[in-house]
UniProtKB/TrEMBL annotation:
InterPro entries: AAA+_ATPase, ABC_Ni/Peptide_Import, ABC_transporter-like_ATP-bd, ABC_transporter-like_CS, P-loop_NTPase. One of its GO terms (molecular function) is ATP binding. Gene3D superfamilies: P-loop containing nucleotide triphosphate hydrolases (3.40.50.300). Residues 19-267 form the ABC transporter domain. This is ABC transporter ATP-binding protein. Belongs to the ABC transporter superfamily. It is a peripheral membrane protein. Pfam families: ABC_tran (PF00005). Keywords: ATP-binding, Cell inner membrane, Cell membrane, Membrane, Nucleotide-binding, Translocase, Transport. The lineage of its organism: Bacteria, Bacillati, Actinomycetota, Actinomycetes, Pseudonocardiales. It comes from Amycolatopsis pigmentata.
Length: 286
């Protein structure tokens, strides 16, 4: 039987956003300056927030700050990050590690660099399941096979025993997504996760993320330089430039009625090479 206090505690947890980023400032101690200034957004279950902006604007550092994995010499010098109601600055390294993978997880570009090249991919996913979900070896293997199926890899039994070098970029990105969702996180950060992939594979991965969101209520942070990707997936968009959020709001507003000159510039540049895909959504929205 649960006590009143436990009921009250669980009620608090369910009303908290899954992720709350408030006025986050990231400072480089090496350069003695602020690199990111004042990023704020919230994620509730199933919500998808996009971050766009030029190279070097601070998108990846923002993601790393949220995950508690800033590179050396970078610190969160202002604001707060709360994951499922917990302020990450108050957590011990061990609790932060436990949170990563089980509550919040991430997929970055260049999947090969996140996998052990000398180990088949299946056991690598099984290992995540074993550590994050506490399953026994045989159950972890079964669950890893289910995950390979869930990310729509054909012939999961074959893929399970294959090494990273035997798989294509699109397959490796699916493997990383499988590993990232192995601990059943509630928030997934996809940082340029489809950038290196060809258009067809990219579309399949985006469908997969949309499907996970619908089936499991997974909330997403999507970082992409591709405005078509953001238009397709996100409800809210942040536009970053030089460490500042220059515009933020519902996707329809930011991408189709931009207010800031920089957002307009991004859209104009984008239309030069992605006109048909980008406008396809605009027509549908109007
Ligand atoms: N590990 C690091 N060491 C030193 N400087 C870094 C490091 N990571 C990022 N920076 C610097 O911090 C700033 C923001 O970088 P960040 O990677 O967050 O940008 P971004 O918007 O993700 O760019 P891109 O689209 O190219 O990935 C840049 O000036 C970058 O050079």
């Amino acid at each position: 039987m649960t006590t009143l206090a436990e009921n009250a505690a669980s009620a608090v947890v369910t009303t908290d956003p899954l992720l709350s980023v408030r006025d986050v400032v990231i400072r480089s101690q090496a350069e003695d300056r602020e690199i990111v200034r004042g990023v704020s957004f919230e994620l509730t279950p199933g919500k998808v927030v996009g971050i766009v902006g030029e190279s070097g604007s601070g998108k990846t550092l923002t993601c790393r700050a949220i995950l508690g994995i800033l590179p050396p010499h970078f610190t969160i010098s202002g604001g707060s990050v709360r994951v499922a109601g917990q302020d990450i600055s108050a957590l011990t390294p061990a609790r932060l590690t436990a949170l990563r993978g089980s509550t919040i997880s991430a997929v970055f570009q260049d999947p090969a660099s996140y996998l052990n090249p000398s180990m088949p991919v299946g056991p690598q996913i099984a290992e995540v399941v074993r550590v994050k979900k506490g399953l026994k070896r045989r159950d972890a293997r079964r669950r890893a096979l289910d995950l390979l199926t869930a990310v729509h890899l054909r012939d999961p039994d074959l893929v399970y025993g294959q090494y990273p070098f035997e798989l294509s970029g699109g397959m490796l990105q699916r493997i990383l997504i499988a590993a990232a969702i192995a601990g059943e996180p509630r928030v997934l950060i996809a940082d340029e996760a489809t950038t290196a992939l060809d258009v067809t594979v990219q579309a399949e991965i985006l469908d997969l993320l949309a499907d996970l969101r619908e089936r499991t209520g997974l909330a997403l942070v999507v970082v992409s330089h591709d405005l078509a990707v953001v238009a397709q997936l996100c409800e809210e968009v942040l536009v970053m430039r030089n460490g500042d959020v220059v515009e933020q709001g519902p996707t329809e507003q930011v991408l189709y009625r931009p207010r800031h000159p920089y957002t307009r510039l991004l859209i104009d540049e984008h239309e030069q090479y992605g006109l048909d895909r980008f406008l396809g959504r605009e027509e549908a929205a109007s």
